[in-house]
Amino acid sequence: MGTQNLSRIFNPGSIAVIGGGEQQNRVGHTLIRNLVEGGFNGAVYPVNPDHAEIMNLPATKNVRDIEGIVDLAVVTAPINQVPQIIEACAEKGAAGAVIISGGGRETGDQGARIEIQIKAAAGQSGMRIIGPNCIGIAHPPSNLNASHMPGTPAQGRIAFLSQSGSVCASVMDLAEKENLGFSHIVSLGSMLDVDFADMIDYLGEERGVDSIIMYMENMTRIRSFMSAARAVSRIKPIICLKSGRSAAGAWAASFHTGALAGEDAVYDIAFQRAGILRVDTFEQLFDFTRILARQQRPTGRRLAIVTNAGGPGVMAVDALSSFGLEPAVLSIQTIEALGTSLEKAWSKTNPIDVLADASCAQIARAVTIAAQAPEVDGILMIHSPVDHVEPADIAQILAGRISSLSCPVFTVWLGGASMDNARQILRENEILTYDTPEKAVSAFVGLYRHSRNIDMLSEIPVRRDIKLKINHEQARSTIESHLKNDRSLLSDADTKTVLEAYGIPVSPKEPGLTVVPDFELYVGARLDAQFGPVIKFGLGGAMSEVYQDTALTLPPLNSALAARTIRSTKIAKALKGHCQFKAVDQDLVETLLIRVSRLVTDFPQIRELEMNPVAVTHGQLLAINACIHLAASPVAAPDHLIISPYPAWQEQLYTTQESEQVLIRPVKPEDAEPMQDFFEKLSIQTVYLRFFTPLKQLSKRMLIQLTQIDYDREVALVALFPAQSGGKIIGSARIIFTASGTEGEFAIMLADSWQGKGIGAALLKSCLAFSKRYGLKRVFGVVLRENRQMLRLADKLGFKKASSRASNEIELIIDIEKLDLYTL
Known about the structure:
The protein is α/β, with parallel strands linked by helices. The chain is 36% helix and 22% strand.
């Protein structure tokens, strides 16, 4: 249901508390007290058959007896009574209910059946459910505290989502100590309805939210989660503390929430693909939230270390080395600037050891000079106690400078009570402080990796025209034949048939045939119960299990993602050429991974695929040993994936009246350069009519928005001529879905020389038809009144006109739910 009704839940005009009573220290009483004492401005309706009045508020026996409107219901009644309560709330027109009551599916089959009844009771009303088994919600900007957390959370711009109520309460208590405020606090509980995906979508559009932090034990609707996170993490940091890294922890998490927790290593990969920063401790959760809110994230891996003692600087270098990183190499200009400022002996390298007798001003200047150096991406300032320098004085100077610096600054104050004042000054200015160099370096590396993941989401792939020759029918008939005969393991011959159908060469099983490889690689895939197919790449051969040099990734893959997977392994360096071994064609290895990705994308029946070794010999790849295990799939491709693949089914040919064939297909990330070429050839008038402002060139950000789309959230088509290979973009149309998932906004752009040939109509009709298949009910768009050609097309397709806020604009609206698109 997306974000439907969530705005009314977090900004209610009235709240019914069902199950609240007069008895203190009970959940219901605490809820009413928090609402009243927290300053909630709306109406509060206690519902309890045993009381006429609760906390000086008139009580009713039943929700139906409430005379006013009910926006939100908060339910504390026993779980077996909740289905009837939710049915009454739905009849009353409530937007949603927060179910505090426990006893759902986390307790077993009986609780699971009750949850099904609760969901059915909400029915088709659109009523949303938060919980059950949660402690409530809070929205400090509107003085809403519909929870039984102690105290009133401070207002801020951080949204906090948690599956655990106790963790939620603990974080609120810790946040008060750390002077952190929140925009939203949501205890999601068992996530019967509203889950992480819905909340990320909602918070992504909330102007009062700068960042989202989460405590997670497991995920539901993983594909929706990935889609929401990938969209929002580009504009707002998402930081997650995910428990259950160990097998015992995963089991405990599944017991707590009644859901599968999944394999932890795959969560790491999923978070990377979604642009989420994963942390391991509450300390990191708050630290990273502060630095992302106050300072810029590091754009690279080059850390400069400023220290007044040599030993701690060496410790920092060792810590960097443990992550495979080295300190920044200082330029001659930076060294000269530091020498002029320090005016005495210093290390003249990185770490920048200013020595123990450096003054407060000199230390601060060293930090500033290093931060301004183009070869530096982050600063670590380490201070050890010395008699002649007051740490608080250094902190005071740094606090006034750090916010204006172009890279993040981390500080370490080695020592005990003598450093407390310095730490407090920086904390008050939301600047990170650490007790040890190792902790600070770990924070820098975590943020650097997060920065790299975010950049990856916006990476424009090199345009490579990879034409995969695939015999889908050959693979399909082989796989279905085995499943029909209840055979789960493909024979060697049939494995070879399936792999070669996807262009993956397999060594023939011939007596006496020996392949002497330059390298041995491992390439495989297996079906994860929650995440679908997971691809594995790395060192192969007999020693592969000993060295464990592998990387995981998720399909679908393009060349950029395949290259990143390869770079994540140690064998990647050897593939570039090592000792007597020749370099291996990188494109060859990337293409192999893309072929495997396509195979497991097309066939959810492949439970496990293993090729070990894949021999690299004479510049070619050859699978020496390969096996495929099958299992019947409850879903058809591509619904088994958690990231939407390229929708090839949207491809079509259009023939103009002049018999010119035009290919209409979904946009691809590799279309960035052709899209820029297309745009630069448009007339000034055409650009103005599309963007309502003159533009000479598409920025990188705009190119990414136009070409790197989520196929579950947008229909974006391009028209290419000629239709054969090498065609150039001559038109583009798209419908971007709103967060509710029921509406979308259209836009269209066509080359001047191709206008009036029906291509614009073909593009927009296709977009409307595909959007209807995705469940959209209404499509709208705003055009300039002078755009007569677009207005004529809108009339032809059945759009209705409505006035817009601007006098020179018209809003076009079409109801596609009941529209017969085949008659257009």
